């Protein structure tokens, strides 16, 4: 019977949690030298009885031995450490999404504060944070293995002070040049990048059997930041006399500082979290990466795009209604995301994703009918349907990624049992598929976020050219139908390479 194992940390003389729940510091023989490590708990079965070399010292809370796949390790301290890191990560990501969405709720209020902006300029201010955030997602993914998850969470949280402070400055003067305002809005893209680094960090903490739940909680908790800021900002900026738009940025600063402090004080870096550029390289060579990324534009891209544009749409089409209800769209889209993964586990991710596209098309059609009849109830209800479908589609499309890569790693006839496969070769192929799937998650997450730019710009073009949102909504319906056909043809159509896998 192997000896229990526990996390091994080092930070000079800092102690770490022992699996028993007490805080202890056990210094190895190497600690008399500079850069020594602090080892906590007994050695793992793999290292017992042989000499080990102390890892090179780095500043910060580092855990040098992390094996969540070992049930004993996980039970005797690993789960507790992972959970602590998860909830702080959720809070930091929540604030990232909140900052990312700040301009979506501030822009509709600019005319009342004296700003003379065209509709096209207003949609630019809404769209550019998504453009920057999507672009930052790839480098943010690699930041965790390079700097450490705890260290990068501190840095990425503090970076949110830039867009919040910039917003507070530029909205105080209606004469602020549009270019300067666009630059301040672009800084909000730092919040969009947080999603990628947060998801990458948490994936290293959890065993394969629990990653889905942990990442689902992390993603849903982050998405809720959009709803929270759209609820809070309209209330905060009108507290007292007049409209004080600068409060939208200032209100975030204490929470950002708190998130950075909590990450610095209670999170951990994993020495075992290593960057694997080969997984990204393998993913870029796999056609399914680009197919799923295209599908993810329709689900997550629609969520973030509609969430950004919805307050502006309400203000433009139904100015008599209060903006404080706009948060409900992002809220239902966020809370239904885990549901999409749960349903996908039972009936298959492709089926759920295709159904989501169908419901999104119906929601967009309902919005068209509402615009033509100027029915607020139908318009609002149709968009809530849209948001629910995007949330479910987010979860189901994300769930498709590991299933697609595992199935595509198996030779054709092996899926239906008509062809014998060498077990060793199959294991190697599946291991390679897991790495490629990890790369695909990062790429799809970045490309999908570009939908947050495309949808507001689509509404802007439609308004400028036709004076109506209707052409844009018809275009989105057409895109959803194309995406549904692509998903069916590649993953469900009888006779297709992966049909037997029931993805």
Structural notes for this entry:
- This protein is mainly alpha-helical.
- It folds into three domains: 1-65, no CATH class; 71-275, Growth Hormone, Chain: A, CATH 1.20.1250.20; 276-503, Up-down Bundle (Growth Hormone, Chain: A).
- Helix 4 packs antiparallel against helix 7 (189-205) and helix 12 (287-317) packs parallel to helix 15 (349-373).
- Strand 2 (16-17) and strand 3 (23-24) form a beta hairpin.
- The strands form three sheets. It has a three-stranded mixed sheet with strand order 1-6-7. A two-stranded antiparallel ribbon has the order 2-3. Strands 4-5 form a two-stranded antiparallel sheet.
- It has helices at 71-100, 102-106, 119-147, 149-159, 161-170, 178-187, 189-205, 208-236, 246-250, 253-266, 277-284, 287-317, 327-335, 337-347, 349-373, 376-408, 423-449, 451-466, 470-491; strands at 8-10, 16-17, 23-24, 26-27, 38-39, 62-65, 269-270.
- Mean pLDDT is 84; it is low at 10-57.
């Amino acid at each position: 019977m192997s000896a229990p194992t526990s996390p091994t940390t080092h930070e000079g003389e800092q102690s770490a949690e022992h699996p028993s729940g007490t805080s202890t510091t056990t210094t190895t023989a190497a600690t008399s030298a500079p850069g020594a490590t602090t080892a906590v708990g007994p050695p793992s079965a793999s290292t017992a009885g042989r000499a080990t070399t102390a890892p090179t010292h780095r500043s910060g809370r580092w855990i040098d031995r992390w094996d969540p796949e070992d049930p004993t390790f996980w039970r005797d301290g690993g789960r507790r450490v992972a959970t602590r890191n998860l909830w702080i990560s959720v809070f930091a990501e929540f604030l990232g999404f909140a900052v990312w969405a700040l301009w979506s709720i501030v822009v509709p209020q600019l005319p009342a504060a004296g700003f003379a902006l065209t509709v096209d300029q207003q949609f630019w201010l809404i769209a550019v944070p998504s453009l920057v955030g999507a672009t930052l997602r790839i480098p943010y993914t690699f930041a965790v293995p390079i700097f450490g998850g705890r260290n990068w969470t501190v840095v990425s949280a503090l970076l949110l002070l830039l867009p919040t402070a910039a917003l507070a400055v530029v909205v105080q003067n209606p004469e602020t040049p549009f270019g300067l305002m666009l630059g301040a809005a672009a800084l909000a893209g730092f919040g969009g990048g947080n999603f990628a680094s947060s998801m990458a960090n948490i994936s290293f903490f959890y065993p394969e059997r629990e990653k889905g739940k942990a990442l689902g909680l992390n993603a849903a908790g982050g998405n809720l930041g959009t709803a929270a800021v759209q609820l809070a900002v309209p209330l905060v900026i009108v507290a007292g006399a007049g409209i004080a738009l600068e409060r939208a940025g200032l209100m975030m600063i204490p929470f950002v500082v708190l998130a950075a402090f909590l990450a610095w004080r209670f999170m951990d870096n994993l020495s075992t979290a290593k960057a694997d550029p080969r997984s990204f390289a393998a993913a870029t060579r796999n056609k399914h990466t680009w197919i799923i990324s295209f599908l993810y534009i329709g689900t997550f891209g629609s969520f973030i795009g509609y969430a950004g544009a919805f307050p502006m749409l309400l203000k433009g089409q139904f100015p008599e209604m209060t903006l404080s209800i706009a948060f409900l769209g992002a809220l239902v889209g966020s809370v239904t995301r885990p549901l999409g993964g749960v349903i996908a586990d039972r009936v298959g991710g492709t089926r759920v994703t295709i159904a989501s596209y169908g419901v999104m098309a119906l929601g967009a059609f309902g919005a068209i009918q509402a615009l033509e009849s100027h029915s607020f109830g139908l318009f609002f209800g149709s968009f809530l349907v849209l948001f629910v479908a995007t949330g479910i589609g987010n979860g189901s499309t994300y769930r498709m990624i590991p299933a697609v890569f595992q199935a595509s790693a198996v030779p054709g006839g092996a899926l239906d049992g008509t062809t014998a496969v060498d077990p060793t070769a199959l294991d190697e192929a599946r291991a390679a598929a897991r790495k490629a799937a990890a790369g695909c998650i990062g790429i799809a997450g970045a490309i999908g976020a570009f939908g947050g730019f495309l949808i507001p710009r689509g509404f802007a073009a439609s308004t400028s050219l036709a004076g109506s949102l209707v052409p844009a909504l018809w275009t989105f319906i057409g895109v959803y139908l194309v995406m549904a056909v692509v998903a069916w043809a590649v993953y469900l159509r009888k006779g297709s390479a992966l049909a037997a896998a029931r993805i």
